[in-house]
Amino acid sequence: MAKNTPAGLRNLVLYSIYVRNHGSNGTFADVENDLERIRSMGVDVIWFMPIHPIGEIDRKGSQGSPYSIKDYRAVNPEYGSKDDFRRLIDKAHQLGLRVMIDVVFNHTAHDSVLVAKHPNWYHQDATGKPITTVPAWSDVIDLRHPNPQLTKYLAKTLADWAKFGVDGFRCDVASLVPVEVWREIRRTVEKVKPQVIWLAESVHAEFIEQRIENDLFAVPDCELYRAFDITYDYDIFPVWQHAVIGKQPVSRYLDMLRFQNCIYPANFIKMRYVENHDQIRIMKLAPSRDQALAWTAFQAFNKGAFLLYGGQESAATHTPSLFELDKVQWGSYELQKFITSLAVLKKDPAQVHGRFAILNNDAPIEAVWYYPPASLYGIFNVNGASGKIPVNLPNGSYTNLLTGTTLRVSAGTMTAPKFAAIVRYNPVTVPSAYRVEMLRDPNHQE
After folding, report:
1. Among residues 89, 76, 68, which one has the least CA distance to residue 27?
2. What does the alpha-carbon distance between residue 392 and residue 425 come to, in Å, rounded to a whole number?
3. CATH number for the domain including 408?
């Protein structure tokens, strides 16, 4: 785990914004006008997908990807000016929000301001032409790390943004940049602003495997914690997706959650989510609306920071294009109250200070945040069960903190909640988490 990790990061609620498609004009001013509503949901951090000028050479789509960046030190003039962005940051701070920006230090646009000045900072082919090591990313070219001059430039860039008012950095495909480079950049920024949040977009396990097989560089998640506070949940995300649609048993996903506890540093922080700008919306992925809500509730209750993707509060089913004008359809914000209740519970003392345990190995999922005398117990109906279900709760009546309705437990069973139930529960001892015991040869003598 990176040193001097700020307290409370495990319980952060982040909200992802793509300026181009967030508001009717696609500007910083649109977002500024929406900040109070966003804050009212219990959001702590707004994360802006890249705000910088977009490359024009070999761009994808009519508008280009925000991850193809021309100048790390400027803002996209289509969004507004630097002064407009500063005003947005100031308002966010007044509302108690922290501001995170996207950092893309694995690659730049073909027409980046760095290409002509520093061609040696790039991966090149035999003719000296800058190239990408990921052929599908045709609109970018890869920076070549490590390079002390390049690292110094990138570190100063982020130190300047920290001085400008930025409170955190979400680092795109962080796994493709050496950890020592990130550590040096972080040390430089900490001299300017010590409590900056560092979030790594760690990549899918399959992608790391492919890189290694092709003699290309990649960093496993466990190493990233030497430089970052939080990493993405992509290591087990494909298993989760297949569990959602029924192609893998829920038990396999729960086993993978427990496996994370074994391979990462103590008190590691994963960012949990059910959707983001690269993935299918949960309302489209899940077999039913209620199952979508159940999975959303579980991931908010799960151990780790929780990400909301702009439009999720409106039950959006469409993931906006990165490359075109493709506005979020806001509708009536029909899930805003539900999401707010999850965000409020994220700050409950049981989740902030308690111990998390999964109590079963099947759906519906049962989990607890043990924190006497005010623990939280959750049951998440991710498979759409109906009728009576067994639960690890004493007989009695409980109030569902998500809906305000009363739940009754009798003879160790209750009627399955429509999607999820979270109740106040005060066990005398730490509930036993589900475990699979190793089978040993009874004749073996140690």
Report:
1. 76
2. 10
3. 2.60.40.1180
369 and 306 part of one domain: no
Q: CB-hemisphere CA count at 13 Å for 381?
A: 20
Looking at the structure of the chain, the number of domains it has is: 2
- Let me know if residue 69 belongs to a domain: yes
Which pair of structure tokens corresponds to residue 216? 């290309």
- 6 secondary structure, DSSP code: P
Asked whether residue 271 is assigned to any structural domain, the reply reads yes
Instruction: Name the residue range of residue 106's domain.
Output: 9-347
Kindly state whether residues 317 and 376 are assigned to the same domain.
Answer: no
As a dihedral over the C-alpha atoms of residue 282, residue 287, residue 293, residue 298, rounded to 10 degrees, the angle is: -80
- What sign has the CA pseudo-torsion 282, 283, 288, 291? positive
Query: In this structure, are 52 and 129 located in the same domain?
Result: yes
User: In this structure, what CATH number is given to the domain that contains residue 182?
Assistant: 3.20.20.80
Compute the average pLDDT of residues 187-208.
Answer: 96
Of residues 392, 388, 307, the one with CA closest to residue 342: 307
| Residue showing tokens 């579980």 | 298
Same domain? For 144 and 256 the reply is yes
Domain shared by 154 and 296, yes or no: yes
Is 439 contained in some domain? no
372: cis peptide before it, omega within 30°? Answer: no
Query: Could you tell me if 268 and 217 are in contact, meaning their C-beta atoms sit under 8 angstroms apart?
Result: no
Model confidence at 4, in pLDDT bands (50, 70, 90)?
Answer: very low
Tell whether 446 is covered by a domain. no
Q: Supply the DSSP string of 126-148, one letter for each residue.
A: TTS-B--SSTT-TTEEEB-S--H
For residues 19 and 26, give the distance between their C-alpha atoms in angstroms, rounded to a whole number. 5
Q: How far apart are CA 92 and CA 26, in angstroms?
A: 18
- What is the pLDDT at residue 7? 54
Q: Which two structure tokens, joined as six digits, stand for 431?
A: 């509930």
State mean pLDDT over 379-406. 96
CA dist., res. 310 & res. 330, Å (int): 9
Residues in Cβ contact with 271 at an 8 Å cutoff, skipping those fewer than 6 apart: 14, 199, 230, 231, 232, 233, 304, 305, 306, 307
